[in-house]
Amino acid sequence: MIDNLTFNVAQLLKDPVGATRTGDVVADVGHLAPELQQVEDAPAAVLSGSVRLMHINDGILAQGMLHTQVMLPCARCLNPVSVPLDVELEEIFVPTINIVTGKSIAPEEEDRALWVDENHILDLREVLRQDVMLASPIHVLCREDCQGLCPTCGQNLNEGPCDCQPEPDPRWAVLAALLKNSE
Ligand SMILES: [Zn+2]
Ligand SMILES: [Zn+2]
To answer: Is 125 in a helix, a strand, or coil?
Structure first.
């Protein structure tokens, strides 16, 4: 799969303010946001959707609602959980070259991820990386009452109890002794 995260906005910047273009975003989430802890061997999660680019006074307004489905490990038992992600994009990109004169512009925007480069390429990669991370839950569970793993042997307790003996509660030992004496 070839990621599509860049758009040439030279013509759009020449068009009057208010002009729009639409484009399709496609990206492998594993490439886009490698820090997102997907389960190993998960099928490639594809982020896709359409974006609308509008020429505004400040530059290019990029808006879109993108979607993907990622496999994240359950926080308790580590089993894969399929998690749908809706990723909202809304950013203003600023030109670094005057499209008419070809002269450099020093953008007021300090975040270089929001600069349209000298070849009039608008690159969504960094903003979408951040948006994917924002949209991702920090804590996912395979089910609300997931029993997790036994801390001693690592058995998945959803699949049944393990052979580890639970530590006897000393209060029950006292009670048992009292009951025995009263017999
Ligand atoms: Zn679980
Ligand atoms: Zn155990």
So the answer is: helix
170 C-alpha to center of ligand 2: Å?
20
35 in any annotated domain: yes
Q: Please state whether beta strands 59-73 and 80-95 pair in parallel, antiparallel, or not at all (unpaired).
A: antiparallel
Residues 181 and 93 in one domain: no
Distance from the CA of 77 to the center of ligand 2, in angstroms?
13
Number of helices (H) and strands (E), helices first, in the chain?
A: 4, 7
Task: Select the highest-mean-pLDDT range: 37-41, 103-107, 125-129, 178-182.
Answer: 125-129
Angstrom distance (rounded) from CA 20 to CA 55: 6
**Ligand 1 center–CA 68 separation, angstroms:** 21
Collapsed DSSP state (helix, strand, coil) of residue 64: strand
What is the separation, in whole angstroms, between the first and last Cα of the chain?
A: 76
Ligand nearest to the CA of 155: 2
Residue 1 lies in a domain: no
Residue 35 CB-density burial (10 A; 0-12 exposed, 13-18 middle, 19+ buried)? exposed
pLDDT digits 0-9 by tens, 115-124: 999 999 999 9
Q: Which ligand lies nearest the alpha carbon of 151? A: 2
Q: How far is the CA of 151 from the centre of ligand 2 (A)?
A: 7
